[in-house]
Amino acid sequence: MKESTSGPILTHITIQKGHSLPPLHQCTTCCSGFHCPFCSESVFKSTRNDKLKLHMKRHFNRAVFHDGFSIHRCGFDCRPSLHYHCPYCETTVLRRNDFESHLIVCKEAHPESCPVGGGMYTRTAMNQRQKE
Protein backbone atom coordinates (compact mmCIF):
# COMPACT_ATOMS: atom_id res chain seq x y z
CA MET A 1 0.00 0.00 0.00
CA LYS A 2 1.21 3.49 -0.80
CA GLU A 3 0.61 6.56 1.29
CA SER A 4 -0.56 9.81 -0.25
CA THR A 5 -1.62 13.13 1.21
CA SER A 6 -5.23 11.97 1.01
CA GLY A 7 -4.55 8.53 2.53
CA PRO A 8 -3.44 5.13 1.32
CA ILE A 9 -3.72 4.23 -2.36
CA LEU A 10 -4.10 0.56 -3.20
CA THR A 11 -2.24 -0.59 -6.27
CA HIS A 12 -4.56 -1.64 -9.05
CA ILE A 13 -4.38 -5.18 -10.44
CA THR A 14 -3.50 -3.80 -13.90
CA ILE A 15 -0.17 -2.56 -12.49
CA GLN A 16 2.24 -5.49 -12.52
CA LYS A 17 5.89 -5.69 -11.46
CA GLY A 18 8.29 -6.18 -14.37
CA HIS A 19 7.17 -7.15 -17.82
CA SER A 20 4.60 -9.61 -16.59
CA LEU A 21 1.01 -10.71 -16.44
CA PRO A 22 -0.77 -12.23 -13.44
CA PRO A 23 -1.27 -16.00 -13.39
CA LEU A 24 -4.43 -17.26 -15.07
CA HIS A 25 -6.78 -19.49 -13.11
CA GLN A 26 -9.83 -21.48 -14.03
CA CYS A 27 -12.98 -20.15 -12.39
CA THR A 28 -14.31 -22.11 -9.44
CA THR A 29 -17.21 -19.84 -8.48
CA CYS A 30 -19.47 -19.03 -11.44
CA CYS A 31 -18.36 -21.21 -14.37
CA SER A 32 -15.63 -23.54 -15.58
CA GLY A 33 -14.04 -20.97 -17.90
CA PHE A 34 -11.19 -18.51 -17.50
CA HIS A 35 -11.77 -14.82 -16.67
CA CYS A 36 -9.53 -11.93 -17.69
CA PRO A 37 -8.00 -10.47 -14.50
CA PHE A 38 -8.09 -6.98 -16.10
CA CYS A 39 -11.64 -6.93 -17.55
CA SER A 40 -15.22 -7.19 -16.33
CA GLU A 41 -17.56 -9.81 -17.77
CA SER A 42 -19.22 -7.10 -19.87
CA VAL A 43 -15.90 -6.45 -21.64
CA PHE A 44 -14.53 -10.02 -21.86
CA LYS A 45 -16.67 -13.04 -21.12
CA SER A 46 -15.12 -16.12 -19.52
CA THR A 47 -13.71 -18.50 -22.10
CA ARG A 48 -11.23 -21.26 -22.81
CA ASN A 49 -7.64 -20.89 -21.60
CA ASP A 50 -6.22 -20.55 -25.14
CA LYS A 51 -8.58 -17.66 -26.00
CA LEU A 52 -7.77 -15.92 -22.72
CA LYS A 53 -4.03 -16.24 -23.44
CA LEU A 54 -4.58 -14.49 -26.80
CA HIS A 55 -6.61 -11.76 -25.08
CA MET A 56 -3.86 -11.34 -22.45
CA LYS A 57 -1.26 -11.02 -25.22
CA ARG A 58 -3.26 -8.04 -26.51
CA HIS A 59 -3.22 -6.51 -23.03
CA PHE A 60 0.55 -7.01 -22.90
CA ASN A 61 1.07 -5.46 -26.35
CA ARG A 62 -0.88 -2.35 -25.29
CA ALA A 63 0.76 -2.06 -21.88
CA VAL A 64 2.84 0.93 -20.80
CA PHE A 65 6.22 -0.04 -19.34
CA HIS A 66 7.37 2.45 -16.71
CA ASP A 67 9.98 2.26 -13.95
CA GLY A 68 10.09 -1.54 -13.84
CA PHE A 69 6.33 -1.99 -14.04
CA SER A 70 3.90 -2.95 -16.77
CA ILE A 71 0.66 -1.00 -16.64
CA HIS A 72 -2.12 -2.71 -18.59
CA ARG A 73 -5.39 -1.26 -19.83
CA CYS A 74 -8.24 -1.74 -17.38
CA GLY A 75 -11.55 -3.12 -18.61
CA PHE A 76 -13.38 -2.87 -15.30
CA ASP A 77 -16.24 -0.44 -14.89
CA CYS A 78 -14.13 2.20 -13.10
CA ARG A 79 -14.79 4.19 -16.28
CA PRO A 80 -17.13 3.58 -19.22
CA SER A 81 -14.25 2.76 -21.59
CA LEU A 82 -10.83 1.08 -21.40
CA HIS A 83 -8.28 3.13 -19.47
CA TYR A 84 -4.97 3.12 -17.58
CA HIS A 85 -4.54 3.60 -13.81
CA CYS A 86 -1.73 5.83 -12.57
CA PRO A 87 0.50 4.13 -9.98
CA TYR A 88 1.28 7.49 -8.31
CA CYS A 89 -2.21 8.97 -7.90
CA GLU A 90 -5.84 8.01 -8.38
CA THR A 91 -6.07 9.33 -11.95
CA THR A 92 -7.27 7.16 -14.83
CA VAL A 93 -6.40 8.09 -18.42
CA LEU A 94 -7.99 6.82 -21.63
CA ARG A 95 -5.29 7.32 -24.25
CA ARG A 96 -1.86 5.72 -24.07
CA ASN A 97 0.09 8.82 -25.19
CA ASP A 98 -1.72 11.00 -22.66
CA PHE A 99 -1.06 8.39 -19.97
CA GLU A 100 2.68 8.24 -20.75
CA SER A 101 2.84 12.05 -20.43
CA HIS A 102 0.83 11.93 -17.20
CA LEU A 103 3.25 9.38 -15.69
CA ILE A 104 6.24 11.66 -16.22
CA VAL A 105 4.53 14.68 -14.67
CA CYS A 106 2.92 12.69 -11.84
CA LYS A 107 6.17 10.96 -10.87
CA GLU A 108 7.86 14.36 -10.52
CA ALA A 109 4.90 15.70 -8.51
CA HIS A 110 4.90 12.66 -6.17
CA PRO A 111 8.58 11.72 -5.71
CA GLU A 112 7.83 10.02 -2.37
CA SER A 113 5.37 7.63 -4.02
CA CYS A 114 6.61 4.36 -5.36
CA PRO A 115 4.35 1.99 -7.26
CA VAL A 116 3.91 -1.37 -5.61
CA GLY A 117 3.04 -3.98 -8.24
CA GLY A 118 1.37 -7.31 -7.98
CA GLY A 119 -2.18 -6.08 -7.92
CA MET A 120 -3.68 -5.53 -4.51
CA TYR A 121 -7.11 -5.38 -6.13
CA THR A 122 -8.27 -8.89 -6.90
CA ARG A 123 -10.97 -9.84 -9.40
CA THR A 124 -13.35 -10.45 -6.47
CA ALA A 125 -12.56 -7.07 -4.93
CA MET A 126 -13.05 -5.32 -8.29
CA ASN A 127 -16.42 -7.03 -8.80
CA GLN A 128 -17.50 -6.01 -5.29
CA ARG A 129 -16.44 -2.40 -5.88
CA GLN A 130 -18.53 -2.31 -9.08
CA LYS A 131 -21.64 -3.41 -7.15
CA GLU A 132 -21.27 -0.60 -4.57
Characterization of this structure:
The chain is of the alpha+beta class and 132 residues long. It is built from 3 helices and 7 strands. Strand 6 (84-85) and strand 7 form a beta hairpin. The longest helix has 14 residues, at 96-109. It is elongated. Mean pLDDT is 83; it is low at 1-9 and 117-132. InterPro entries: Znf_C2H2_type.
Q: Would you identify the regions where 5 or more consecutive residues have pLDDT less than 50? A: 1-9, 117-132
Taking the alpha carbons of the first and last residues, their distance comes to 22 Å
Structural category is alpha+beta
- Tally the structural domains: 1
**Overall pLDDT:** 83
What level of helicity do the residues show?
Answer: 25-40%
How much beta, percentage-wise?
Answer: 5-15%
Secondary-structure blueprint of this entry?
Elements lengths: L1 E3 L2 E3 L5 E3 L31 H13 L2 E3 L2 E3 L12 E2 L6 E2 L2 H14 L13 H9 L1
Antiparallel strand pairs: 1-2, 3-5, 4-5, 6-7
Could you provide a short overview of the structure?
The chain is α+β, with helices and mostly antiparallel strands and about 130 residues long. The chain has one domain.
